[in-house]
Amino acid sequence: MIEINNLVKHYGDKKAVNGISFTVEDDEVLGFLGPNGAGKSTTMNIITGYLSSTSGTVKVNGHDILEEPELAKKDIGYLPELPPLYLDMTVLEYLNYICDIKQVKRSERKEQLAKIIAMVKITDVADRLIGNLSKGYKQRVGIAQALVGNPSILILDEPTVGLDPNQIIEIRKLIRTLAKDHSVIISSHILSEIQEVCDRVVIINKGKVAAIDTITDLSKRLAGSSKLLLSFKGDAKKIMNEIRSLPGVSDCKIRISDKDIHEAEITVTGNSASDIRTSIFYVMSRNSSPIMEFRSLDPTLEEIFLSITAGT
Amino acid sequence: MIAVFKREFLSYFRSPVGYIAIALFSFLSGYIFVNNFATGAVNIASEVISLRSFFVVIVPIITMGLFAEDKKRGTEILYYTSPIDLFSVVAGKFLAAFCLYGIMFVNVFIHMIVTKSCDGIVDIGAWGSVIVFFFLAMLFISIGIFASAITDSQIIAAIFSFIMIMVIQLLSTISSLAGNAIAAFLSMLGVASESSNSVGEAITNGINWLDPFAKTSDFRYGSFSVAPLVFCISFAIVFLFLTFRVLEKKRWAKS
Ligand SMILES: Nc1ncnc2c1ncn2[C@@H]1O[C@H](COP(=O)(O)OP(=O)(O)O)[C@@H](O)[C@H]1O
Ligand SMILES: [Mg+2]
Questions:
Q1: pTM, full prediction
Q2: Model confidence over B152-185: pLDDT tens digits?
Q3: Does A237 or B31 have the greater pLDDT score?
């Protein structure tokens, strides 16, 4: 369990973190969501003991990170934004070095490393130089590093950023496996990125907590309004008017392009997003307008902030 | 400490740095030795003393990356988030650079053996120079490590330690220049020449007190004393401690 109480961090005059408090329960997966520059990395750096806070406390399983740093750090595995890898070492050399500095007992080392390597699936590259690995594999080695020493808590700072879609799916799968027997804090600036793995989210903005909510409650609140994206060919004006007049549609903006494919951004109110798709299909079909693309748009963080503040 | 030492020492040989340093030292020492050998006047003490002039090049090469590279790659975070204490990180890196010097110095030991086997003389003065060399190496390496900790650019670290070591090597020249300049300045202001000269002399002596070369100059004649060695070690410890403080401070980053 992690208890974070009124954390403040100033960089000179700048308040990067400005009074953040939340707790992470045992075996919980907590999403830490906020736009770039919100203070996610700074908060995580303080929790893990890399930075000192200007004020406020962090307790890890009851141990204060400043007063009993050894005990607190022992329970935490950290994957920073930039994975701390030595490119000139092989994966195995590197993980052995991590065992050394995390003071893993010699007798336990072999077994523990074998388990970690199998779990994060880096067996094939164990003897390769880290510098020669792909980004996805480097990220896995970074996660392996965090797992050394069997910490009960994992802190992952934007673990999927910069990866390609396949690698993202793989890393997410790995995180879901790890979530079974660890408490996890995972940060992101995209809600959909962490929606599937997290129990709760803490949303921060400009160094302050904007909301703490379970994923289900948050989804309910966001369901108040959703957006659909439609690309089509045909008479843009006419179709726009017809879609606008559908019940449940509050707005429809169309970008008319030079080519013959137009894009419409449709705002739907209420929980009717799924029903409205049927009606829109018939509109298109009546007009013999081919649909090129039709999908729901993830809410942006700004929209999330708006709906959160509107609800309270 | 052992873990950091092992990693840093081995990493000298995963990059060109270790090889470059060893090749450079081998070439320089070999060149000096062969030249002396050809004239039939082998003098290990003077060879070792000549080799001291190259601290200014070799120390920056082998120390510039020690902390700067960690900062650039983001690996320094490992020191802060694991139970290891920061002073042992500093000590481990120091030891790695020092051992690399030890390996380079094998050249000189080989020259000693060759000299012996050709019925040459390896006297107590030669051993005295060797001892001084290693104590000076400690001092300069600690400066190089400090330089590496205060910046994340290897180039800036190298330039900084180059200048610091250069200044220390030129300390005897600097001290007399400074002493004379101040004496001249004072007499220009109308101070009696006797007192202005004594002020100048005091300044020269004061600066000379910092000069590790002057302090250890008797070793080559086989006259050993503990005080100069303690001076070198204290100097090194001060810089290693400053390095430790710099790392500690980072946690409180204000900028
Ligand atoms: N070392 C630093 N010096 C000064 N400002 C910093 C430093 N690190 C971060 N900041 C500032 O603090 C704020 C929070 O940064 P960060 O915690 O990295 O945000 P996030 O991870 O949410 O993108 C940003 O505005 C950033 O510019
Ligand atoms: Mg960040």
A1: 0.86
A2: 899 999 999 999 999 999 998 998 899 889 888 8
A3: B31
| Cα–Cα nearest to A142, from B8, B149, B73 | B73
Other beta carbons less than 10 A from residue A80's beta carbon: 23
Question: Which is the closest atom of ligand 1 to the Cα of B253?
Answer: 1
* The pair of three-digit structure tokens given for residue B251, joined into one six-digit string: 């946690």
Distances from the Cα of A45 to the Cα of A20, A244, B28, B30, B81, angstroms: 14, 48, 47, 50, 9
pLDDT at B39: 84
What is the gyration radius of the CA atoms in chain A, in angstroms?
A: 23
Overall size of chain B counted in residues: 255
Please give the Cα distance from A236 to A258 (Å, whole number): 12
Task: Show the DSSP H helices in chain A as ranges.
Answer: 40-47, 69-74, 91-101, 106-119, 135-147, 165-179, 191-195, 215-222, 236-244, 273-286, 301-311
CB contact under 8 A, B15 and A88: yes
Pocket residue to mutate for ligand 1, from A9, A14, A194, most atoms within 8 A of Cβ: A14
Which one, of A261, A263, A273, lies nearest residue A299 by Cα? A273
Round to whole Å and give the CA distance between B245 and A174: 39
pLDDT tens, residue by residue, A164-217: 889 898 899 999 999 999 999 999 988 877 888 888 999 998 999 988 988 877
In A, residues 69-88, which contact B (CB 8 Å cutoff)?
69-70, 73-74, 76, 78, 80, 82-88
Domain spans, chain B: 2-162+223-254
> Which ligand minimizes its atom distance to the CA of A17?
1
Take residue B24 and report the two structure tokens written for it.
Answer: 């450079």
Classify residue A33 by its DSSP letter.
Answer: E
Q: Are strands A29-33 and A183-188 parallel, antiparallel or unpaired?
A: parallel
| Residues on chain A touching B255 (C-beta within 8 angstroms) | 11-12
Given a contact cutoff of 8 angstroms between Cβ atoms, the answer to whether A118 and A43 are in contact is no
Question: Which ligand 1 atom minimizes the distance to the CA of A42?
Answer: 17
φ/ψ region of A2 (left if φ > 0, alpha if ψ in -120 to 50, else beta) reads beta
- Angle ∠(B171,B172,B175) on CA atoms, nearest 5: 80
* Joined tokens for residue B15: 């990059």
> Which one, of B137, B115, B177, lies nearest residue B56 by Cα?
B137
Q: pLDDT value at position A224?
A: 64
- What one-letter code names the amino acid at A78? Y
Q: What is the pLDDT of residues A240-267, one digit of tens each?
A: 888 888 888 888 888 877 677 888 888 8
Atom of ligand 1 at shortest distance to CA of A12?
Answer: 4
- The neighbour count for residue B190, using CB atoms within 10 Å, is 7
Helix (H, G, I), strand (E, B) or coil at A23: strand
Nearest residue of B to residue A46 by CA position?
Answer: B251
Q: Name the closest ligand to CA A45.
A: 1
pLDDT tens string B67-112:
999 999 999 999 999 989 899 999 999 999 999 999 999 999 999 9
H or E segment to which residue A5 belongs: strand A2-11
Check A101 against B80: CB less than 8 A apart.
no
